[in-house]
């Protein structure tokens, strides 16, 4: 019982520490939160960072690859091995400055340079040559240490905690190498019988779980739009070489027809799917 009580008190201390002005007065904004680049040539993008708190802050900035799936970006999972290493763009991104100090209300520019055409021997990264989509994130972190907190517990011993808290945000960086994909001319490796081993895009719906599953076997990211009985649902992204299942906020009866639209750049590919 004493152990449980101490745990509850520890949680209360943590909440109090995070609610204190020492943390409430430290905040920042980043815009834009997403960068789209053409990897056929080096590009430099500008991101604006503003200290919208009331205290001086110090930010640490670095490129990072966040994996797809549980524990990372939970919008599906890769459907073949080696995709994470292949699409990782982090080693080809440099940021300036890497450390930034901002006074309250101050605004500064962050330069993000992406050059995937030059190998990085210092990071053991080989230049990207295969057409397709690549990605990474630029992580902006504010690190702060909370004041040591003590809470009176009567007969119990006082509980002391020191919290090391990190505030961070991620800027998504998406790059495309090669010409925009033509959805009507997507080709995949063929087997010894001259047949494609897999379809470029497969889609199915499940009437028992009221869910929609998309398998993207291309090297490109796509936007999926879908509708049922003239009701349009929120579009979603499916990453390159990945599968994704989404719940449909409707009763999908067996035999129901879902109307799908796959978008890539300014192209659209429409299909109708019969639920099973």
Look at the structure and give the CATH class of the largest domain: Mainly Beta
Number of individual domains: 2
Count, helices: 3
Which structural class do you get from the secondary structure elements? mainly beta
Q: In total, how many beta strands?
A: 20
List the secondary-structure elements in sequence, H or E: HHEEEEEHEEEEEEEEEEEEEEE
Gyration radius from CA atoms, angstroms: 24 Å
Helix content: under 10%
Please describe what this structure looks like.
The chain is mainly beta. It folds into 2 domains: 2-177, Immunoglobulins (Immunoglobulin-like), CATH 2.60.40; 183-274, Sandwich (Immunoglobulin-like). It is built from 3 helices and 20 strands. The protein has helices at residues 2-19, 21-24, 83-87; strands at residues 28-31, 34-38, 43-51, 57-64, 77-78, 93-96, 99-102, 107-114, 132-145, 149-151, 159-161, 164-177, 201-206, 211-216, 222-228, 231-232, 236-238, 242-247, 257-264, 267-274. The strands form 5 sheets. Strands 2-12-9-4-7 form a 5-stranded mixed sheet, with no helix packed on it. Strands 15, 16, 17, 19 and 20 form a 5-stranded antiparallel sheet that branches. It has a 4-stranded antiparallel sheet with strand order 1-3-8-6, with no helix packed on it. The longest helix is centred in the N-terminal third of the chain and has 18 residues, at 2-19. Mean pLDDT is 78; it is low at 3-22, 145-164 and 190-197.
């Amino acid at each position: 019982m004493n152990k449980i009580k101490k745990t509850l008190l520890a949680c209360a201390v943590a909440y109090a520490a995070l609610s204190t002005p020492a943390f409430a007065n430290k905040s920042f904004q980043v815009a834009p939160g997403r960068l789209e680049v053409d990897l056929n040539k080096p590009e430099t993008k500008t991101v604006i960072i503003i200290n919208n708190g009331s205290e001086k802050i110090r930010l640490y900035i670095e490129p990072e690859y966040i994996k797809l799936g549980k524990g990372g970006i939970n919008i599906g999972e890769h459907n073949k091995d080696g995709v994470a290493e292949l699409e990782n763009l982090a080693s080809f991104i440099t940021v300036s400055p890497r450390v930034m100090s901002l006074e309250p209300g101050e605004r500064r520019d962050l330069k993000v340079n992406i050059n995937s055409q030059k190998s990085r021997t210092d990071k053991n990264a080989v230049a990207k040559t295969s057409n397709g989509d690549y990605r990474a994130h630029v992580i902006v972190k504010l690190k702060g240490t909370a004041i040591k907190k003590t809470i009176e517990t009567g007969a119990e011993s006082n509980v002391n905690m020191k919290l090391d808290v990190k505030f961070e945000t991620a800027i998504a960086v998406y790059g495309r190498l090669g010409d925009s994909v033509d959805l009507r001319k997507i080709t995949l490796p063929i087997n010894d019988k001259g047949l494609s081993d897999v379809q470029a895009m497969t889609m199915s719906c499940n009437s028992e779980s009221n869910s929609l599953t998309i398998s993207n076997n291309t090297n490109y990211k796509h936007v999926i739009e879908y509708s049922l009985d003239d009701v349009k649902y929120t579009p979603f992204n499916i990453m390159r070489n990945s599968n994704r299942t989404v719940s449909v906020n409707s009763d999908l009866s067996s035999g129901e027809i879902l109307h799908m639209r796959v978008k890539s750049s300014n192209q659209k590919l429409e299909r109708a799917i019969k639920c099973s």
